[in-house]
Amino acid sequence: MIWSGDWPSDPGDEEILIRAHAERRVLITLDKDFGEHAIVRRIPHSGLVRLAGIRLMAQADAIKRVLELYGEQLPEAAVITVEPGRVRGRSTRGGSDG
Fold first, then answer.
1. Left if phi > 0, otherwise alpha if psi is -120 to 50, otherwise beta: which for 78?
2. Is the dihedral of CA 68, 71, 73, 77 positive or negative?
3. C-beta separation of 51 from 20 below 8 A
4. Which residues share a beta bridge with 90?
5. Is 82 within 8 Å of 62 (Cβ atoms)?
6. Mind listing the pLDDT tens digit for each residue in 48-95?
7. Which residues contact 37 (CB under 8 A, 6 or more apart)?
8. C-alpha triplet 43, 40, 11: angle, nearest 5°
9. How many Å apart are CA 44 and CA 52, to the nearest integer?
10. Model pTM score
11. Chain-centre distance for alpha carbon 60
């Protein structure tokens, strides 16, 4: 696991997404801008999980559950949004699963 907050400076969302893809890492974020970069701007990625409105103490469990359910789909450019009581997903390579 890598936390971009440990980096000496913030390279910006686009560069973070590019680095994660180069390292074949799933990006987990609270920031909706990454979804725009992946979906609208079509920046390649290796999976994106956005936590929206998930309490801090519930975030680890939410991430674990998403990885269990969608782990195989994430590297295929899936974008998963997790909200209280709801999980939405889509592939940026076409199609939608929810």
1. beta
2. positive
3. no
4. 79, 96
5. yes
6. 999 999 999 999 999 999 999 888 888 888 899 999 999 988 887 654
7. 13, 14, 17, 43, 45
8. 45
9. 22
10. 0.85
11. 14
